[in-house]
Amino acid sequence: GCDSLRFTLTSFAAMGRDIKQSEARIEGYRHFINKIWNAARFALMHVDGSEPEFDPTRLSGLHHRWILHRLETLKKEHAAQIEGYRFNEAAQGLYGFVWREFCDWYLELIKPELYGEDEAAKAAARSCLKHVLSEIMVIAHPVIPFVTQEIWSCIPSLDAESLAVRPYPKVRPECEDEASVRDMEFLQGVIVAVRNIRSELGVAPGVPLTVMVRAGGEDQRFLQAHETEIAALARVGTLTVGADIEPPRGCASAVVRGCELFVPLEGVVDFVAELARLDKELGKISKELDFVTKKLGNESFVSKAPEDVVAKEKAKAESFAEKKATLEQLRARMQEFVG
User: Fold this and answer.
1) How far is residue 169 from each of residues 186, 193, 234, measured CA to CA in Å?
2) pLDDT greater than 90 at residue 63
3) Exposed, middle or buried: residue 77 (CB in 10 Å: 0-12, 13-18, 19+)?
């Protein structure tokens, strides 16, 4: 609606640039507004006004320290961008923080606490969640006025004053924590590596994986301390961490910050069936690539067809070639597992 159109225009509003209207972009940013709404609905299921007063010094969890640091970074950057009339950068920074950091990571990381039995951890999560959500609403209000005001009015124990007259969130130096960013990047790297292995090899999302990580010292202690988060976000059934890990034959592997990660595939992937599927898909993509390549090699077509049609065919050829290369790499990896 109005908010998605307003956000689209803001994201395009680079200085010295004419704005070309795009219904597809408006629709894309409508999904972003819906993302904010759904994230707020989830948060308000757990925030009822009884949570303790926000105190960052009492929040020891890595995910809490990380999101608060990233929020402080957003506040500083957003303020500088607005003051410098770099409205498109302000919109994109807000988009990245809300979608990729708050929704994709933080909300997922706090679910074990929100649904767990540790009341102290649950209270801390609810307090931090309420604080971050409320400050996002204030920051986003000039660009997304209607949805943010509606969400603000539903957050318990906040004043009913219009967001339009509220001051910009104050800076909280005590929330800055560079170490949390480095640690979270490591944790995210491990989770993403397992997710990528699952996706590349076609392992169903509901199948728990066994993960082995060859790591020692601080890295070993860190991963063992965050086993719950890894298990929840990467669907890991068993996590083993040690400096002398010896993986069995037939493992998918990845390296994250110098730590070797192994996922045993025996009993998880049907290698013969997967190879047959890949061969079939490669045959199909090869035919499509050959057809487009021949078309582009036809001088008559290239010279007579409209430029946009030729450009689309070239984009198709690039896409097919990239997909074929990815499938060939995956097939080679699968063949190694079969031996």
Assistant:
1) 29, 36, 34
2) yes
3) middle
CATH code for the domain in which residue 332 is found:
1.10.287
Residue-wise pLDDT for 73-101, tens only, equals 999 999 999 999 999 999 999 999 999 99
Percent helix, strand and coil across the chain, each to the nearest 5: 70, 5, 25
How many folded domains does the chain comprise? 3
What's the mean pLDDT when you consider all of the chain? 90
Whether residues 161 and 79 fall in one domain: yes
Q: Indicate whether 156 and 247 sit together in one domain.
A: no
Strands (E), 27-67: none
- Domain match, 51 and 154 both: yes
Predicted TM-score (pTM) of the model is: 0.82
Residue in this structure with the two tokens 């509003």, named with its chain if needed: 13
Question: HSE of 79 in the Cβ direction (CA atoms, 13 Å)?
Answer: 11
Report the distance separating Cα 267 and Cα 201, nearest Å. 13
Distance CA 337, CA 176 (A): 45
Same-domain pairing of 199 and 97: no
> Are 148 and 18 within one domain?
yes
DSSP 8-state secondary structure symbol assigned to residue 247: P
Residues 161 and 156: their CA atoms lie apart, in Å, by: 13
Q: Residue 69 sits in a domain of what CATH number?
A: 1.10.730.10
Same domain, yes or no, for 166 and 46? yes
Do 276 and 232 reside in the same domain of the chain?
no
211 and 183 in contact (C-beta within 8 Å)? no
Is pLDDT at 339 greater than 70 in this prediction?
no
Which residue range forms the structural domain that includes residue 192? 185-264
Beta carbons within 8 Å of 63's beta carbon, 6+ residues apart:
105, 106, 109, 110, 184, 229
- Contact residues for 110 (Cβ-Cβ < 8 A; gap 6+): 63, 125, 128, 129
Q: How many CB atoms lie within 10 A of CB 136?
A: 24
Q: What is the pLDDT of residue 203?
A: 86
- pLDDT over 70 at 338, yes or no: no
